[in-house]
Design a protein that fits this description.
Length: 177
């Protein structure tokens, strides 16, 4: 093999390796951006039904993060935030939403939601940083289980018919509901 042929083969092999590397990276990026699971899709679809969200687009793996960008925030792990403030929601908050594995922020203020706050939402634990459900028609007491929300920065249940305080938070959140 001549020197020119060796260079040509080396150049060809280098470009082939680069092309394979680029394709692999692109494949990984697509997989990362689509980290939402079917279970999360099903839970959001249940939320849509329970709260009578006015929506004609089916909630699927391809629509969940792209169709409602101001309402549902996704990152490389899954759905991390839901903001359904002022969306004319009625009905109740489904307990099943507690199974959202990466939810850090939940907002459903200024709607007409009724019923009680699901104690199951305590499963969001230390990853939950904000919870806003003010301006609805919720009733009952704040579930004592919500004491598991140790990373909570923002919280409001104002303008509902709720009683109680978050255990362990005392007056910090008492003023806001």
């Amino acid at each position: 093999m001549t020197r020119v042929e060796r260079r040509r083969n080396y150049f060809h092999d280098s470009w082939s390796s680069l092309a394979i590397s680029v394709l692999w990276c692109l494949t990984m990026c697509v997989q990362c951006s689509n980290a939402v699971t079917q279970a999360e899709v099903d839970l959001v679809a249940e939320f849509f039904i329970a709260t009578k969200f006015a929506n004609e687009t089916p909630c699927t793996l391809t629509t969940i993060c792209n169709t409602w960008p101001a309402l549902i925030v996704c990152n490389t792990v899954g759905v991390t935030a839901m903001n359904f403030t002022d969306q004319s929601l009625t009905g109740t908050l489904p307990a099943s939403l507690s199974m959202m594995p990466f939810l850090a922020s939940f907002m459903a203020q200024s709607n007409s939601l009724s019923g009680t706050l699901p104690p199951e939402y305590s499963a969001w634990g230390t990853r939950l940083v904000s919870f806003y459900v003010g301006g609805n028609q919720l009733n009952g007491t704040l579930p004592s289980e919500y004491a598991a929300w140790r990373s909570l920065i923002g919280f409001s249940t104002i303008a509902n018919n709720l009683t109680g305080t978050l255990p362990g938070c005392g007056s910090r959140f008492h003023q806001e509901h």
